[in-house]
Amino acid sequence: MTTTTPPPPPADPPATGPLTSTDHQAFAFLGLVNSGLRQCLCTLARHGVAVRRDAPERARLLLDTVRPWPLYKGGQFLFDLMEWEDLMVDGDPPPLMSTERIVSACTLPVQLLAAATAEAPGAARLLPGQRTATALDLPLRLLTTTARTTLLGAAQDLTDLLGAPTPRPGTEGDAPAPDPAAERPETELPPLEAGFYLYEDIALGALSVLGPLLAAHAPADSATPA
Q: Which candidate, 13, 25, 132, 177, has a CA 20 to 30 Å from the CA of 72?
């Protein structure tokens, strides 16, 4: 008696689940954001380890200076709250992010901070009767200026993300010399050290890599040690 094996039933279409293609694309983009953030943080931490090992006295003075500042304390709070240490040490070490890319990505925020802290010319010389009008008009002017600066800066930053930051007018030729620690080849940067020093190393690395960018926005009359 001859038997015939029945053909297999048609395969069911692959289940896509409740997620849409847009969801998957959004997650793909956010995954790139996480990877870029991890790469940047780990790179800064490795620069910080190099500063701490090669110039311990300078590292101590840098940290002693910034520790009392709200910006440093707020960064420590966000670092712990968002569990960035887990993000950094989970998995194999990422490749180094170039100094140019880190500086370019931070140029716009630094410019906004510089604009926000700049003293408005003539703000203290109000004519009689203009205080109320100025007070009412100030929020609108601040909002308009901030929005315009943000949009223009974002467009330029996206267009020239990997380029070197554009020097401010009048600063060409007298920009601070780059920090040697920020120019180390990848093979000379030590691995990051998880634990107690991790946030401090990120802060040291940021000051090392971004030092010339921050110094370019220093007040003109800031003192420079001999």
A: 177
* Beta-carbon count within 10 A of 13 CB: 6
Query: Per-residue pLDDT tens for 82-138?
Result: 999 999 999 999 999 999 999 999 999 999 988 888 776 554 444 444 555 455 555
DSSP states of 146-212: HHHHHHHHHHHHHHTTTSPPPPPTT-TT-PPPPPGGGG--GGGSPPP--STTHHHHHHHHHHHHHHH
Rounded to whole angstroms, the Cα distance separating 9 from 88 reads 48
Residue 212 identity: P
Using the structure block, give the residue that is written with the tokens 């107690």. Answer: 196
pLDDT digits (tens, 9 = 90+) for 176-211: 454 555 555 555 788 888 887 899 999 999 999 999
Report the b/e string of 116-142 with b at 16+ CB within 10 A: eeeeeeeeeeeeeeeeeeeeeeeeeee
- Taking all residues of the chain, what is their mean pLDDT, rounded to a whole number? 76
The verdict on pTM exceeding 0.85 is no
Amino acid letter for position 115: A
Q: Is residue 140 pLDDT above 90, yes or no?
A: no
Q: What is the DSSP letter of 188?
A: G
Contact 153, 10 (CB under 8 A): no
Both tokens of 86, joined, read: 């887990």
Classify burial at 164, counting beta carbons within 10 Å of its beta carbon; exposed 0-12, middle 13-18, buried 19 or more.
exposed
